[in-house]
Amino acid sequence: MELKKIIEALLFVAQTPLQLETLIQITEKTANEIKHAIAELKTEYETNQSALQIIEIAEGWQLTTRKEFAGFIKKLYKEETTLKLSSSALETLAIIAYKQPITRAEIEAIRGVEVSAVLKTLIEKNLVRTCGRKDTVGTPFLYGTTQQFLIYFGLKSTDELPSLEEINE
Predict the structure, then answer these.
(1) For 66-133, what is the HEC assignment?
(2) At 105, is the pLDDT very low, low, confident or very high (cuts 50, 70, 90)?
(3) Does residue 129 carry a pLDDT above 90?
(4) Do the Cβ atoms of 104 and 115 come closer than 8 Å?
(5) Do 20 and 34 touch, CB atoms closer than 8 A?
(6) Is the dihedral of CA 161, 164, 166, 169 positive or negative?
């Protein structure tokens, strides 16, 4: 069976981006063969002006619809709630994204307010996770962002976050 079609089927049914290692395990093909097949699929979707596209996100690939169809898709799923974050949650999330791994006390020192409830909400929404403990007095938890964070913000990795200079411009 053609590798390109196997990858297309896998991307179609996957709920989250598929990473290269996963595709290698499932298909038993090399990284180069998989990357080549994905590149061909991307070209086919583009050439055919398909409503679908393959995007590189959260250190993997995902089959998605093009953004110009978002309005129609929203109407289809109008009953589903969208993820909304308060300004305090967004501020805390930004601090974690740029300073990770970071402790709750360090976040509170930057924000100047207590963040336990906001942190709990971000963990419940799977945007933040504990990623270890800091080797200091009390060994507090360290927090970092999740794969869901990358998916939500459409990033391949946190390296794509805008720099502080870009934000200030």
Answers:
(1) CHHHHHHHHHHCCCCCCCCCCHHHHHHHHHHHHHCCEEHHHHHHHHCCCCHHHHHHHHHCCCEEEEEE
(2) very high
(3) yes
(4) yes
(5) yes
(6) positive
**Digit-coded pLDDT (tens) for 49-63:** 999 999 999 889 999
Q: What is the pLDDT of residue 85?
A: 86
Residue 10 parent element (H or E): helix 3-13
Average pLDDT over residues 7-28: 95
- Round to whole Å and give the CA distance between 53 and 40: 12
Q: 88: burial class by Cβ within 10 Å (0-12, 13-18, 19+)?
A: middle
Query: Virtual CA dihedral for 156, 105, 107, 113, nearest 10 degrees?
Result: 150
Q: What is the dihedral of CA 10, 15, 20, 25, to 10 degrees?
A: -60
pTM (whole model) above 0.85 = no
Q: Which of 33, 157, 1, 52 is nearest to 43 (CA)?
A: 52
Measure the CA–CA gap between 80 and 65, rounded to whole angstroms.
Answer: 18
Q: In what order do the strands lie in the sheet with 102-103?
A: 102-103, 141-145, 128-133
